Amino acid sequence: MSFFMEKTKITKRLNQDISADVCVIGGGMTGLLIAYKLRCSGAKVVVIEKDRLFCGESSRTTAKITTIHGMKYADLIKNSGFEITKKYYLAALDGMNYLVDTISELGCDCDLEKIPFVLYSKKSSEKLLSEYAALSRLNVICSLTKKVNLPFKVENAINVENAYIFNPVAFMNTLANELDIYTETKAVKVAGERVICETGNVSANHIIVATHYPFINSLGLYFAKMYQEKSYAAVFENVPEFNKMYYCTENNGYAFRPFGDKIIVSGNSHRTGKIYGQDKLASLIADVKSYYPNARLVDSWSAQDCMPPDNIPFIGRYSKFSNSLYVATGFGKWGMTSSATAALVIDGIISKHKRPYTNIFSPFRKTHSQGRRQIVNQTKLSAKELIQSISYIPVKEVRDIPRNSAEIVRIEGKKMGVYRDVNGDLHYSRAVCGHLGCPLTFNSSTKSWDCACHGSSYDIDGNIISNPCQK
Ligand SMILES: Cc1cc2nc3c(=O)[nH]c(=O)nc-3n(C[C@H](O)[C@H](O)[C@H](O)COP(=O)(O)OP(=O)(O)OC[C@H]3O[C@@H](n4cnc5c(N)ncnc54)[C@H](O)[C@@H]3O)c2cc1C
Ligand code: FES
Fold it and tell me: What is residue 218's predicted lDDT score, i.e. its pLDDT?
């Protein structure tokens, strides 16, 4: 549960067959922004959400609105060329402006605040300087600085003034009030122009899959292209005042953003399912307490996002073979601006006024050589995990599992994931992922069973927390 998840209302279940111009599947930031944009363009739009509203990743984000998506631009110029990079930046800028304009147009009280975004390096200036050169080439207004309000030594930093923070749930709540939404309505499959749900169907001329990780396997083959990364976030009070947000350029560094008089610190990312026994959330909390000994923990959570092979999201037609089915995914942990970009891109395609950057997001674009290597590695890892899943023979018995621990055990010939909670009660989950059969690993920080292949997560009782698994 994240700190943002307070302001949730709307519930209405689909229990009949209906029709609309557009059906958006998924009521997260992406689905809601796309639906709102298309509704403003005059379409009759229906959103269906499998859960209650705001249970997805958008409620567990840290909600920094910026065009600076980490150390993106120098690498993108090197791997994809300057023209594509320029289009990516323009798309991010359009997305950010659209998001901020929509917030003010709707008069939404979501704590929107303009504060500088600072990229900092603890180790070396070199990579940061090449990012600074890339940003300057793209005409981003930014400056180098060594003055940062952080509790450790920083080698160098880039300050970008044009950035914002907000409360994503408050904003999604405002968007949701503008839309026709069915909750607890799961899309089971798409058949032509019909979305088949568990409790009714929606016929629509255009269908948009905004389910975070795309849930249709047979088209698009997204499971062969994307994996997921999990990160951790914690809110602290009794800390010094922050008036900027900070993002570390090194993999093991933390991001900081103010939240009123508190701060949200996030980081310790890893491929979902590859945790190697460490408690990543506990180590984040311990690190922050070592920086600020008086800090008090208020809340903590984890979230995950889809990582595309070339660091560019997939937005557009779902596959070469689908003309009226669209997708928006692969935001690489920058889905606040990228979901707004997705709304502009998909609206442009449907209204036949394509945005100038539409093609760079095409889900069936050619990926550069480094991206192709990631796809090959992704396939190899999935194959290895599958073999491991089939060949693993559990050696432990349920009675061997101590409190607050989990093991894969064999029960009546079937492998199960079993967690014994702090009170000694047992919880049974699956040991093998319901998506494509890879093995699950227990994450002690989140008390979840996670899959390394494409990132599905299950709670201790086997309920799905994160896509792509739908079973
Ligand atoms: C730790 C962390 C910090 C982040 N911080 C930032 C940040 O500061 N700035 C930024 O720009 N980005 C950030 N991101 C990324 C951002 O949070 C995500 O990219 C974004 O929230 C994804 O939104 P979404 O709508 O695609 O997914 P979601 O919010 O998960 O929405 C998808 C919805 O689809 C529903 N669904 C799934 N399957 C079905 C189905 N079959 N039928 C009906 N509904 C279905 C789900 O229930 C869910 O509600 C962060 C990510 C992480 C992991
Ligand atoms: S998420 Fe694809 S096999 Fe688990």
Answer: 82
User: Domain containing 451: what range?
Assistant: 389-466
396-445 per-position pLDDT tens digit: 888 889 999 999 999 888 889 999 999 999 999 999 999 988 989 999 99
Note whether residue 185 is domain-resident.
no
Does residue 243 lie within any of the structural domains?
A: no
Q: What is the pLDDT of residue 2?
A: 63
| pLDDT in the model for residue 3 | 62
Can you tell me which atom of ligand 2 is nearest the CA of 440? 4
Q: In this structure, are residues 344 and 355 in contact, taking their beta carbons and an 8 Å threshold?
A: yes
By alpha-carbon position, which residue is closest to atom 21 of ligand 1? 58
**E strand or H helix at 375:** helix 369-391
Total structural domains within the chain: 1
Cα 449 to Cα 447: distance, rounded to the nearest angstrom: 7
Angle at 254 between CA 250 and CA 255, to 5 degrees: 110
Q: 387 CA to middle of ligand 1, Å?
A: 30
Element (H, E) at 349: helix 335-350
Q: What is the mean pLDDT of the chain?
A: 92
Q: Name the nearest CA neighbour of 48 among 240, 200, 193, 191.
A: 200
Cα of 210 from ligand 1 centre, angstroms: 9
**Which 3 state secondary structure label does DSSP give 94?**
helix
Q: Indicate which ligand has the atom closest to the C-alpha of 456.
A: 2
- 31 pairs with which residues across the strands? none
| Ligand 1 pocket member 467 (CB < 6 A) | yes
The model's pLDDT over 104-134, given as tens digits with 9 standing for 90+, comes to 999 999 999 999 999 999 987 888 999 999 9
- Assigned domain for 47 exists: no
What's the burial of 287, exposed, middle or buried (CB within 10 Å: 0-12/13-18/19+)? middle
Nearest CA to ligand 2 atom 1: 454
Distance between CA 155 and CA 128 in Å, rounded?
9
d(CA 163, CA 67): 8
This prediction has a pTM of 0.95
pLDDT digits (tens, 9 = 90+) for 169-226: 999 999 999 999 999 999 999 999 999 998 899 999 999 999 999 988 888 889 888 9
Establish if 168 belongs to a structural domain.
Answer: no
CATH code of 433's domain: 2.102.10.10
Q: Closest Cα to residue 166, out of 295, 339, 302, 20? A: 339
Mutate-to-test residue for ligand 1 from 331, 337, 338, highest number of ligand atoms within 8 A of CB:
331
Pocket test for ligand 1, best of 23, 256, 333 (most atoms within 8 A of CB): 333
Convert the pLDDT of each residue in 135-181 to its tens digit.
999 999 999 999 899 999 999 999 999 999 999 999 999 999 999 99
Ligand 1: does its nearest atom lie under 6 Å from the Cβ of 334?
yes
